[in-house]
Structure formats: C-alpha cells, structure tokens
Amino acid sequence: MKAVQYRAFGQRPELVEVEKPSPGPGEVLLRITASGLCHSDEVVMSFPEEGYPYPMPMTLGHEPAGVVEQLGEGATGVEVGDSVIVYGCWGCGVCTMCASGRENLCLTGMVSPGLGVDGAMAEHMIVDSVRHLVPIGDLDPVRAASLTDAALTPYEAIKKVQHHLLGGSTAVVIGAGGLGHVAIQLLRTLTSARVIALDVGDEKLAFAKEVGAHEVLESNADAAGKVKEMTGGVGADVVFDFVGIDPTGATATAAVRVAGAVVVVGAGGGSAKVGLLSAPYDVEVRTSLWGRRSSLIELVEMAKRGEIRIETKEYPIDDALQAYADLHDGKVRGRAVVVP
C-alpha cells in the first residue's frame, strides 16, 4: 500500500510502498478515507537525530478518518463498515490521568498515530484499541478528520479558560490558521466574547473575518497596544497563542488584562515571559495539549449541527508531498487533507 513516511533525518517525507498491516488482538484495521496534515509533522521532521523520540521510518498523519475494515481478535464495540475518526492520544489507560479521561496527559508517556507509531498518511492503518475510535455517521470524512486535532486542541484550550469569557469580554486569537480558524468559530459558538484575530497579511486577516472574527489586526509589535486601545486600555480577558514563538508570546502577555489568562497552544519553540513585573498582576498563563476523547465526541455532534466547519484543501495521496510543501510554505488556508 502507499504511505507517506519520514525516513531520513533532515529530509522531507517520501511516498513509498509498504506492506498492508494486519490487526493483532484487540486492534482495528482502518481503510483510511482522509488524513489531515499538521504543523506538528513539521516539528517532528525538524528534530535532530540525537534524542529523536520516535521510530524511523515512520508513517506520518495523526488526524485520521477511516472505515473499519477488519477487527482483531477480541475487538468489539464497532462493526466492519463503520465510519470513524481516531482519537490520537494513546495513553497507558491505567495512570491517574488516563483514568480521569485525560490520555493526552498520560503520566507514562502518550504515543499517537504519526507521532510514535505508524499513522494515517497511508491507505490503511492500525488503531490500538476501539476506545480510540469515534463514530461519525454521515459526516464527510474529509472535513471530519481534522476534528481530531485542529478542532479538539482549541476546544480544550477554550474550555479551560471559559470562566474568563463572560458577557462583555474580549478574546484574542493569535494565528488564524489550521487551529486558529477553528478557535474563532468555537469562541463565537461557546461564548459571547468579542473575538480579535491577529495574523500576517491581508489574505489571512480576511479569512479570520470570514470565519467569524469581530476584528482583525496585523500581528506585529504594535498589536498588543492596539488591543489595549480597543479594550479601553484594559486588555483582553484571554489571549490564545496558536503560533508559540517568542514574539507572539510577548504579544500575548502584553495584550492580556490584569487577572486575565494566556493560553499557549502553538509548538513554535518560543515562550511567554512571565514574572511579577513583566506581566499583568494575577495573570493566568498555561499551556494546553490536545484534549479528551469525550471532548472529541462533543465536537462531532457540533459538526453534525453545523456549528463548526473546518476549511480544508484536499490532495490525493499521490500529491501528499506537495501538500507538505504547501503546508511548510504557508500556502494552505485552513487544513490540508490527504485522501488515499
């Protein structure tokens, strides 16, 4: 079968032929119907060889949608032919975090398809347990695949600080791309907050407006001051940083209000500087990693009701390398999705 693999350090992924896998006991074989691309894939391919945490080669893709093709011995709870998406946080299942439904924070180390085991950028993939499958019914798999990360990650981040987003509040979204454009929609659905989106370039700002931002600003050194002006000098109640580099971290802490919240979601390698005299008093600064399976189930229902819609650009698997090039070059509006 065809698969897109990361095979050599410092190199781009390759489209190769590999053997079709067979499910072991308790496992499920999916025929992939769609697989979303993520900037996390780029992060993985930028890791140095020394200390690289994953197997090599490895099939990429941690936003899978598929159809159940075969059940391993003892696997129950789904049927052959079911249309599903895959919850990507595969924890140990027994630690305190997993027991509370937070496999994304597994204390013994989470693995994911495409981030530790072979992923969904292929014609078939193995899912380790039926507990990681979420049925989607008649949802379009191309639009449903990225619910698993591009929607789940901002949804979980918003829920953590939703108590700040009351009537008359303001939320800032830095980066209106794959995750950020979904965050804007979720904020409009879940809260009454005014949403201000920050990004670079007229096209990206227009896209942020299109998906629901009330106001848009160029993401630069002046952005925090403009947010302060727009909020009467107070600052935003919550700032979500979906980029995660030093300049956006600085913007976030400069734009947030006293006793507000900053949530760093982007894996850009930067940080938000926090200290008693370098950030507003009593500000809450946190990171947010992926989300719970129960939250993914909620998102599927929201998608069925038309409350969120992931903008996608579709590529056949033969063009998957071009999809990664477009993602790397910032040419994808919303989410790139590969279809075998």
Secondary-structure topology with pairs:
Blueprint: E1 2-6, E2 14-17, E3 28-36, H1 39-46, E4 58-59, E5 63-71, E6 83-86, H2 96-99, E7 112-113, E8 116-117, E9 124-127, E10 133-135, H3 141-144, H4 152-160, E11 170-174, H5 180-190, E12 194-199, H6 202-210, E13 215-218, H7 223-230, E14 236-241, H8 246-255, E15 256-264, E16 284-287, H9 293-304, E17 312-316, H10 320-328, E18 335-339
Parallel strand pairs: 7-8, 11-12, 11-14, 12-13, 14-15, 15-16, 17-18
Antiparallel strand pairs: 1-2, 1-4, 3-5, 3-9, 3-18, 5-6, 6-10
Helix pairs in contact: 7-8
Q: Helices and strands: which structural class?
A: alpha/beta
Number of domains: 2
Q: Give the CA-based shape.
A: globular
Q: How would a textbook summarize the main sheet?
A: 7 strands, mixed
CATH class of the largest domain: Alpha Beta
What is the CATH homologous superfamily assignment of the largest domain? Medium-chain alcohol dehydrogenases, catalytic domain
**CATH architecture term of the largest domain:** Alpha-Beta Complex
How are helices and strands ordered from N to C?
A: EEEHEEEHEEEEHHEHEHEHEHEEHEHE
Number of strands: 18
Helix content: 10-25%
The CATH topology of the largest domain comes to Quinone Oxidoreductase, Chain A, domain 1
Number of helices: 10
Strand content: 25-35%
- How far the N terminus sits from the C terminus, by CA atoms, comes to 10 Å
- Low-pLDDT segments, ≥5 res: none
Average pLDDT over all residues: 95
Rg over CA atoms: 20 Å
Keywords: Metal-binding, Oxidoreductase, Zinc
InterPro entries: ADH-like_C, ADH-like_N, ADH_Zn_CS, ER, GroES-like_sf, NAD(P)-bd_dom_sf
Catalytic activity: a primary alcohol + NAD(+) = an aldehyde + NADH + H(+); a secondary alcohol + NAD(+) = a ketone + NADH + H(+)
EC number: 1.1.1.1
